[in-house]
Design brief:
The complex is a heterotrimer of chains A (330), B (148) and C (507).
Chain A lengths: L1 H27 L14 E5 L6 H15 L7 E5 L6 H9 L6 E4 L3 H8 L10 E9 L2 E5 L7 H10 L2 E6 L4 H13 L3 E6 L2 H9 L5 E4 L1 H9 L3 E6 L25 E7 L5 H14 L3 H9 L7 E2 L1 H21 L4
Parallel strand pairs in A: 1-2, 1-3, 6-7, 6-8
Antiparallel strand pairs in A: 3-10, 4-10, 4-11, 5-8, 5-9
Chain B lengths: L1 H21 L14 H23 L9 H23 L1 H16 L4 H22 L9 H4 L1
Helix pairs in contact in B: 1-2, 3-4, 4-5
Chain C lengths: L1 H13 L2 H19 L5 H8 L8 H26 L8 H49 L4 H19 L3 H15 L2 E2 L6 E2 L13 H19 L23 H23 L4 H16 L11 H17 L1 H7 L5 H12 L8 H4 L1 H32 L4 H20 L2 H19 L4 H24 L6 H4 L1 H24 L2 H5 L4
Classes of the chains: A alpha/beta (330), B mainly alpha (148), C mainly alpha (507).
């Protein structure tokens, strides 16, 4: 496996050199085929999950914006290539290496699936366009709990270890409280659930002391006072959670979140990458995008190009360190 | 045949238990029940029960009352079903279903050519309309559409 | 009285020509989807959700509710006629439904199934209307300890299923438990039996296994028995017109069954996550231990079909309680509804019914109407389905294989799952031939992961102590009810009739 990849890379290097040498020639003769994107090419948009999921909604929102503002000249064909927690869809994009018309959106599994299974690709392999938003978590306790704010929570957790629930282990739900506890200096038992619904029920039944979760699904319970939000893991608190401090505000910034971004096939031509970066800069300014961020309670965190590749690498390494520590992966 | 099937089950159960004991730990790092707890329990129980049944079978050697004729059609049907699985991957939902039904009906519903031809065209067409047009559900795509 | 005016408001919203049309369309679509093996209510809702995009929320929610109910009604049809449950909540309906059809009572079984669904569904909506806030309290008292106990209660049904060849039955259950452990371990995140495959990270899905074991397995078995050689008709007998309608005796003997299981199903449905599957299993085993003729169960006893059918429809109404009062989806189907709510910019939670009375009461009203519409559709549709079993089996068989295959594929668009179904079909045939219990395997596959995960969560929470099971009020209740069902009922029964009948249950 590694052997073939290496061969491919060296071939691509040769190709890149050739392109470099040919560049002056290309300038000399008017560039005919250089124009990206060409209106004759159909954009092959891979959605690595089924219809209706978070990844699908994000992809379709972006496509809608591109179409509405006529940002993309050709046809866009979105395809749900679900399976293997994203391995199928991103594997398909991986195989389009070098192509400039293969594109996909990322979500949490983009980082976690390669950690759990032998995928031929790694997140850093793809051509990064932009990180557009992050999924961040809120720490909540039962509304009837005596704990009123995060300071009281940390004090109580230092006095006696707490149970904190979350969805899954190879997930940001586990990483966030683990890193937070390390920084704030308390211990806890992590209880892993299959879904947000299961963990919320457990918290309401007083089986858990606290839980972390995406605020979008529990806003109703927070609003009615059934759940009390204590701290938010993102860079800035969404409007719906006004008054709740971020982990950074109280001095325990952890800097880990789930990346929602846009990628092209590995080794896509630079002009394709540049074109998409410029286009996404316009997309994130639209009111439709702002509405998407608000309804899904995402944190708008925008990073472009190679910085996004670095971000992906850092996130993956952060995950790997924590997960290896607890023995989830080897 | 019955004994052979039991040995297949036994082999599976032993493999399952082997992985449970070698790869999965009984307790987790924090001292709680670990990933290996339940598989080990299940594996050991399955192996024990299977051996028990095999011993019973060996002790009480009754000749099987099966006659070969009853196996002919079911084996044909299974082979055709497996062929269908391969066809689906190659040609996609609609064409594979036409070919599969044509083959199977030729074998099972012998001699009624007209009926078989009509059915192996109309039934896939109806299913296609139902899945693809009415419900907008996924039909298996053909392999060549992945290649272009 | 407030409730009454709210309900009237809901009804007045629901009864507009266009909304009634959506309701009717939804009910029919739901039923069609439900009949296809592989598509239960949740998969059906998920694929039909886009149909409602662009509709106004009240119309859309009515259509979705109708699809939900339609799929519940339709799902049992294949359980009865083809021994193929479309989803886990109708597995229990095959236990007596298919034997009934085999005995030539397909018509009465289908009609009684529709009636039982109607009674369970309607009783459920009435309970939502009158007592939603009270049941919301039940929804919020369940945590991991209670789920573990519930899963154990569901497993009691396994003992019933294992039957005569108990060693083979236990092996079947062990295979199911083993398949259930495949995937990433929830607690540690470690892969179990995944061998590095990304396809197996999420575990082995129930649908392909159930369709393979029951549907294909039964079909191969019928061909082995030579059913296809017997001219017309197939595994299921049906020829006489007058046997289409249930007899008076069918109704009279099952009216208490319907009453009991409406309540039981609803209460279990209210518990988020337990849902229709456990409700139907508990209903089946309770009904069997209450029955004067437990020996007839599994051989085509009407009460054995009516009980799980009433319970799973009552449970699907019950599942609306956590959704409407807490914003927590209690089942895969209500999770799709929740996604729809979020898409419309609504904020489900305890204030939902106050803030959106039109939508909440429109939904409740549409559930009353939906059940009525579906009962009527069923009565008209059943003769059509009965026609299907008149097709010679040598032709019907291959067509059933096609539908099972495409149905399995389209749920997740997965070839791996399709191959898994074929493999399960061949294994299921041998299991059937040699006296194993495919039902025990499938139940173990559903309940095993639930029990294992809940037990490990419980022991993490309690730091290894088992006393948590008697410290929590809800746990004590479940233990009490279980003891009553397992010890109390059989004892009571024994006083009621000669001790002889009860003896031959387990031996």
């Amino acid at each position: 496996m590694t052997h073939t990849t290496k061969t491919q890379i060296s071939w691509l290097k040769v190709g890149a050199m050739a392109a470099l040498l040919a560049a002056p020639l290309a300038v000399a003769t008017p560039a005919v085929a250089q124009q990206y994107p060409s209106a004759d090419e159909t954009l092959d948009w891979t959605i690595a999950f089924g219809p209706g999921g978070g990844n699908d909604i994000m992809a379709r929102t972006i496509i809608e914006i591109l179409t509405k503002y006529d940002m993309y000249p050709g046809d866009i064909s979105p395809e749900n290539r679900a399976g293997g927690s994203g391995a199928v869809g991103w594997g398909y994009l991986f195989a389009q290496s070098g192509d400039s018309y293969g594109i996909s959106t990322t979500s949490g599994s983009f980082v976690t699936t390669p950690l759990q299974a032998d995928t031929p690709w790694q997140p850093e392999d793809f051509t990064p366009v932009a990180l557009l938003a992050t999924d961040d978590l809120v720490l909540v306790v039962n509304g009837s709990s005596e704990i009123q704010d995060i300071e009281e929570f940390i004090a109580a957790a230092q006095a006696s270890p707490m149970n904190i629930g979350g969805t899954g282990t190879v997930n940001v739900d586990f990483i966030v409280p683990t890193l937070f506890a390390q920084k704030a200096g308390f211990e806890f038992d992590y209880v892993s659930f299959n879904s947000m619904a299961d963990q919320t029920t457990a918290l309401l039944s007083d089986a858990l002391d606290a839980m972390v979760g995406n605020p979008g699904e529990i806003l109703g319970l927070i609003e009615s006072g059934e759940l009390r939000p204590l701290v938010f893991s993102g860079q800035n608190t969404p409007a719906a959670l006004e008054g709740v401090p971020t982990m950074g505000d109280i001095g325990f910034d952890i800097g880990v979140s789930m990346p929602r971004g846009l990628i092209l096939a590995p080794d896509a031509p630079a002009e394709a990458q540049d074109w998409w970066i410029e286009t996404m800069k316009k997309v994130v300014e639209t009111p439709e995008w702002a509405e998407y961020i608000a309804t899904n309670t995402l944190t708008p965190t925008v990073i472009y190009g190679e910085d996004f590749r670095t971000f992906l690498g850092n996130t993956k390494n952060g995950f790997e360190v924590v997960l290896r520590e607890v023995g989830a992966i080897d | 045949m019955r004994l052979a099937f039991m040995f297949v089950v036994l082999a599976g159960a032993i493999f399952y238990s082997y992985v449970a004991f070698v790869d999965l730990s009984f307790l987790s790092r924090t001292g709680r029940l670990g990933p290996g707890f339940f598989p080990r329990l299940v594996g050991v129980f399955a192996v024990a029960m299977t051996i028990w049944v095999i011993v019973d079978l060996l002790r009480d050697q009754r000749p099987e009352e099966d006659d070969a004729s009853s196996w002919v059609d079911v084996v044909k049907l299974m082979v055709l079903a497996l062929a269908y699985a391969v066809l689906l991957r190659l040609f996609g939902g609609f064409i594979a279903t036409v070919i599969y039904l044509a083959m199977t009906l030729t074998v099972m519903n012998r001699g009624k050519y007209l009926q078989n031809v009509i059915l192996s065209l109309t039934f896939p067409a109806g299913v296609y309309l139902l899945f693809d047009k009415l419900l907008n559900a996924n039909m298996p795509p053909a392999l060549f559409s992945f290649l272009n | 009285m407030d409730i009454f005016s709210d309900l009237m408001m809901g009804l007045s919203l629901a009864i507009t020509p266009i909304n009634l049309l959506y309701l009717l369309a939804g009910a029919m679509l739901g039923m069609i989807v439900g009949v296809i093996p592989g598509f239960g209510p949740s998969a059906g809702l998920a694929i039909l959700l886009p149909v409602t995009f662009g509709m106004d929320p009240v119309g859309a929610i009515m259509m979705l509710a109708a699809i939900y109910y339609g799929a519940m009604y339709g799902g049992t049809i294949t359980s009865i006629l083809l021994n193929t449950p479309g989803e886990s909540a109708t597995v229990a309906s095959t236990f007596d439904g298919f034997p009934l059809a085999k005995n030539g009572r397909a018509g009465p079984a289908l009609v009684m199934q529709a009636v039982a669904s109607f009674v369970g569904g309607t009783a459920g909506v009435i309970m939502i209307t009158l007592m939603a806030p009270m049941f919301a309290q039940v929804s919020r008292s369940f945590g991991p300890p209670e789920y573990f106990l519930l899963a154990v209660m569901g497993m009691l049904t396994l003992i019933v299923m294992i039957g005569q060849q108990w060693k083979l039955g236990i092996i079947s259950a062990m295979i199911g438990f083993a398949l259930g452990t495949v995937g990433v371990d929830l607690e540690t995140g470690q892969g179990r039996y995944t061998f590095g495959s990304a396809e197996l990270i999420g575990g082995i899905y129930f649908i392909p296994i159930a369709i393979g074991l029951f549907g294909l397995g039964e079909l191969f078995y019928a061909f082995h028995q030579g059913t296809h050689k017997t001219g017309t008709g197939g595994i299921v007998e049906y020829d006489k017109e007058e046997r289409f309608w249930p007899t008076k005796h069918d109704f009279m003997s099952t009216r208490m069954t319907m009453a009991r299981n409406s309540v039981l199903g609803f209460i279990v449905g209210v518990i988020p996550g337990a849902g229709a599957t456990i409700a139907s299993l508990m209903a089946y085993s309770t009904e069997r231990s209450l029955s004067k003729h437990p020996e007839r169960f599994g051989k085509g006893e009407m009460a054995g079909l009516v009980a799980p059918e009433t319970a799973n429809n009552a449970a699907s109404s019950g599942a609306m309680i956590p959704l409407l009062t807490l914003g927590i989806p209690g089942s895969a189907s209500t999770a799709v509804l929740l996604a729809a709510f979020l898409m419309w910019g609504l904020r489900p939670g305890p204030l939902f019914m106050e803030q959106n009375p039109e939508l909440a009461w429109g939904l409740i009203a549409s559930m009353y109407l939906g059940n009525m519409v579906l009962l009527i559709i069923s009565i008209f549709a059943i003769p059509l389905f009965v026609q299907m079993i008149k097709v010679p089996y040598r032709i019907l068989g291959p067509c059933v294989i096609v539908i099972c295959t495409l149905g399995t594929f389209s749920v997740h668009a997965s070839f791996i799952e399709t191959y898994l179904m074929f493999a399960a079909g061949i294994v299921g045939f041998f299991m059937r031939l040699y006296g194993f219990s495919p039902a025990a395997l499938v139940l173990a596959l559903v309940l095993g992961p639930l029990a294992e995960e809940a037990l490990r969560q419980t022991l993490t929470i309690s730091r290894g102590s088992f006393s948590i099971f008697i410290e929590r009020q809800a746990s004590l209740w479940i233990i009490g009810v279980t003891l009553l069902l397992v010890v109390g009922l059989p004892l009571l029964n024994r006083f009621g009739k000669s001790a002889g009948d009860a003896e031959n249950v387990g031996s």
